[in-house]
Amino acid sequence: MPVKKMLCLCLVLLMGFTMPEKETVATPDNLLTTQQSTKAATALEGAWKLSNRTGNNGKATAGETAVKLVADGFFSVAIYDKEQKNFKGTYGGTYTVENGRLIEKFEFNTLDSTAVGNTVTSSYKLQKNSLQQNSGAGTTETWEKIPAGNDQTPLTGAWRINGRETKEGQMGTITPGPRKTIKMLAGNRFQWIAFNSETAGFFGTGGGTYTTRNGKYTENIEFFSRDSSRVGQQLTFDYDLKEGDWHHSGLSSTGNKINEIWQRLSKSGRRQEAK
User: Fold this and answer.
1) pTM
2) Cα distance between residue 14 and residue 29, in whole Å
3) How far apart are alpha carbons 253 and 37 in whole angstroms?
4) How far apart are CA 186 and CA 158, in angstroms?
5) What three-state secondary structure class fits 8?
């Protein structure tokens, strides 16, 4: 082969192995930023109680209790009066932390259904057991972490129902979609919410405190949107973790037999596998 053609062929081959100019390569700085954001998001996890609010956005007033649960990239806020057995409202959805700012996206909101699908970006300050959140709309909220010795229970996290036993005794699978039931457990608090994130439909919620001991999961109901007479009830269920799934069985607040399977959700909304 002539020398000139050989040189041309070598040049073509070398060009074929050249890195495209516009290809993005992950750098240590980018990885560090992601790790920092994940760490910041995890630091917000737990159960929080609203202690002070400046401005007026209708989220809570004097005499009401507002509890915020944060876990696995999800959050929920319930507002209620336990003594009067009066449920006021609830809102929540997913959250991330980017560049030191808290970004919350609403998947349900009984106080303002038009807010579903919208995001709110807030500046925040986390100091020991206090969280101060400023939405930039003239409203600043101060949340105090609720102390609990229940933080490390195996059920801590955000769960989505995946299966329920039918009247015929068969375990039916619940296909993931916009219609969903989420159960949040953080600290010693729990809240379940049934909603549709596409239509802003809301179907009910309830919550309070919980304990786990010797395979028993016990709920103490402090609010219940559909029936205030349930407030004050204590319900005990059998629970087990199998391959990362929560198997939950017993009698509901109406006395009906239930047998359910819940899947743990990760920060991306996908199932988090057991470690």
Assistant:
1) 0.83
2) 30
3) 40
4) 8
5) helix
